[in-house]
Design goal:
The complex is a heterodimer. Helix content of chain A is 79%, strand content 0%. By secondary structure, chain A is mainly alpha-helical. In chain A, helix 2 packs antiparallel against helix 3 (64-103). The model of chain A has no long low-confidence stretch (mean pLDDT 91). Chain B has one domain (4-544): Sodium/glucose cotransporter (Up-down Bundle). Chain B has 22 helices and no strands. The N and C termini of chain B lie far apart (55 Å). The model of chain B is unreliable at 1-19 (pLDDT under 50). The chains are: A mainly alpha, B mainly alpha. Chains A and B meet through helix 1, helix 2 and helix 3 of A and helix 5, helix 6, helix 10, helix 11 and helix 13 of B.
């Protein structure tokens, strides 16, 4: 990449917005996933009987089952949330930056 | 009849997701399985022939020309992850321990969202054929490529041995073939797929297998649930009744202390993000958008698959456990209890017979074999690329090798790796290999991932930092695994481990990150100044894809 192009893009407000917004969004989602997963694992490590609580009075099913399945589903939903915003807002910003870079 | 011994200790389930543990016994020749498997082999060789005609350049060979769609790639990634051992191993773990199996599979899944948020698009924008392209983008080629290639080859070989030994044992069980014959058969077919069909054939073999495996597993889970009117409470209640304990409904002893729990979590998460055969798949799609779509689909398929294996494991408890048809009478007479034929890893296979008869048993057995073939092909291609693209073309020929020669080298490397895998598979037949996949994940998490991650996100990374820190992570992971319980006690037979934890990732990943940071910030050479200056241009390409490798039209 030519230095002139680098200088143009690095000061482009769209580019600055893209990296700022995307990095904030990606980190938020990453931390959410880490909190969900390590929260789950630490409950298992410190108080495994908690997940063995019956789901309702007299049931064999424990609350651990929907929570475990919930962790799996949350992983999928988080990827969906990211892809949705990235396909819309972030791709639009990227396309604008690219168009400007070509025009220069 | 040889007695089957399967150790049910939690230790043998370390990374059960990818290594089949325990001894197995050769079964009678299974004709319907063999016929269905032959159909699969015929079809995939047809695909290989089709792919071979379209594989002309190095780019075709490594990345299928970059023309795989997000959906197809998601399916292929899921296929790479849903190995035979993960299908049989996790359902066996659920069958034996109940809830613990679910905890285990969750660990394997949660790395995927992180891959999407942090590295998928960036990898596609910066890379060409291997993750070393990205790691060495603005650093010195020779040292960084050598380190990355070394990490890749080590990960691939460890993983391959585990798969080959698992393959040999599984095929013995399912098809009644000799261990050596099974290993050689897998090795030869894999060499054919990869050398002739390259990434295009490897991807399509993986997609077809993923489809068959998901369909088969769905059928089994639905059949089990239909039996209980789709009422989970009834299924679980019957399972608890069968097992005569409610312990299967809550966490057991799989994760005991917090350090081990966190360390295992880190190994699974960052390890997944450092597996070369997985990272390589991001170069097969046309752009960043398709790369991110592939992770979305892959996470969905993998998560769905783990929910299925959970139901299948419980299905096996209610339909196989204590069913005299599947019991190993000889073993029960000696050890008591209710051991099933072929050991716990056969739980899903017996269940397929219980719900679908001989025909469906044959289908699931054939799918399990196909799964092994597809996974070892992907691994071998990743290992061969590290040899040809990183070591030969970039280090040895300093980037001046022509594409055709490079492709030739990678085909030779494929054949050599295939032969090595066959030999190691035979040598390690009766060895305790439970630690190998764990070690592969530890190395991927401690050497490959930190260097790759910081090369994309940290402007002050220098060659010296990456080389010394990455090597430190690699060495720490290796040494701690050797001194830990899985090798020091289980393999070498010492009474007590010097390093008390099974999973070293918490320590080795930290060592790598601290090492990379320290040796980078103290690097005041001219060279390091240039590398830091080059970050800006790299970051623009990384973030926007301007200047990224494009796809080839076929």
């Amino acid at each position: 990449m030519k230095q002139e192009l680098v200088d143009v893009i690095k000061n482009d407000p769209d580019y600055l917005r893209l990296i700022r917004e995307r990095s904030r969004f990606a980190w938020t989602l990453t931390i959410t996933m880490l909190v969900i997963y390590f929260g789950f694992v630490l409950v298992i490590a410190f108080d495994p009987s908690l997940l063995g609580t019956p789901l309702f009075e007299g049931s064999v099913t424990t609350i651990g089952i929907p929570i475990g399945i919930g962790v799996i589903i949350s992983a999928f939903i988080l990827t969906g949330i990211y892809v949705r915003r990235a396909n819309g807002e972030f791709d639009e910003l990227t396309n604008r930056i690219k168009a400007k870079a070509k025009g220069e | 009849m040889k007695t089957v011994l399967l150790t049910l200790l939690a230790a043998s389930y370390a990374f059960a997701g990818d290594a089949l543990g325990g001894e197995v016994e050769k079964q009678a020749l299974n004709m319907s399985a063999i016929i269905m498997f032959l159909i699969f082999v015929g079809a995939t060789l047809g695909i290989t022939y089709w792919a071979a005609k379209r594989t002309k350049t190095a780019k075709d060979f490594y990345t299928a020309g970059g023309g795989i769609t997000g959906f197809q790639n998601g399916m292929a990634i899921a296929g790479d992850y849903m190995s035979a051992a993960s299908f049989l191993g996790i359902s066996a773990l659920v069958y034996a321990k109940g809830y613990d199996g679910l905890i285990y599979s969750i660990g394997f899944l949660v790395g995927w969202p992180i891959i999407l948020f942090m590295i998928a698009e960036q990898l596609r924008n910066l890379g060409k054929y291997t993750f070393a392209d990205v790691a060495s983008y603005r650093l010195q080629q020779t040292p960084i490529r050598t380190l990355a290639a070394f990490g890749s080859i080590l990960t691939v070989v460890l993983y391959l041995i585990a798969q080959m030994v698992g393959a040999g044992k599984l095929i013995q069980l399912l098809f009644g073939l000799d261990y050596e014959v099974a290993v050689i058969l897998v090795g030869v077919l894999m060499i054919l797929y990869v050398t002739f069909g390259g990434m295009l054939a490897t991807t399509w073999v993986q997609i077809i297998k993923a489809f068959l495996l998901l369909s088969g597993a769905t059928f089994m889970a639905v059949a089990v649930m239909a039996h209980y009117n789709f009422n989970f409470e009834t299924l679980f209640a019957t399972a608890v009744e069968m097992k005569e304990t409610a312990a299967i409904m809550a966490p057991g002893g799989l994760v005991s202390d917090p350090i081990s729990a966190i360390s295992l979590g880190i190994a699974l998460m960052f390890g997944t993000a450092g597996l070369p055969h997985i990272l390589m798949r991001f170069f097969t799609v046309s752009d960043a958008k398709e790369a991110r779509k592939s992770v979305f689909y892959a996470t969905g398929f993998i998560g769905y698959f783990y929910i299925l294996t959970f139901i299948i494991g419980f299905g096996a408890i209610v339909m196989v456990f204590q069913n005299p048809q599947y019991l190993d009478v000889a073993k029960a007479a000696i050890d008591g209890g209710a051991p099933i034929l072929g050991g716990d890893n056969m739980a899903a296979i017996h269940l397929s017979h219980a719900v679908g008869g001989d025909f469906f048993l044959g289908f699931i057995s054939a799918v399990a074999f196909a799964t092994i073939l597809a996974v070892v092909s992907g691994l071998t291609l990743a290992g061969a690329s590290a040899i040809s693209h990183d070591l030969y073309a970039s280090v040895l020929r300093a980037g001046r090798a022509d594409g055709l020669m490079e492709m030739k080298v990678s085909k030779i490397a494929t054949v050599v790796l295939g032969i090595v895998a066959i030999f190691l598979g035979i040598i390690f037949e009766d060895q305790n290999i439970a630690f190998m996949v764990g070690l592969a994940f530890a190395i991927a998490a401690s050497a490959n991932f930190p260097v790759l991650f910081l090369s994309m996100f940290w402007s002050k990374l220098t060659t010296r930092g990456a080389l010394l820190g990455g090597s430190l992570g690699l060495a720490t992971a290796g040494v701690l695994v050797i001194l830990g319980p899985t090798v020091w006690v289980d393999v070498l037979g010492n009474a007590e481990a010097i390093f008390p934890y099974k999973y070293p990732a918490l320590f080795s990943v930290t060592a790598a990150f601290v090492g990379i940071w320290f040796f980078s910030i103290t690097d005041k050479s001219d060279n390091s100044r240039r590398e830091i200056e080059a970050f800006e241009a790299q970051n623009i390409r990384c973030q926007t894809g301007i200047g990224a490798e494009g796809a080839v039209e076929h």
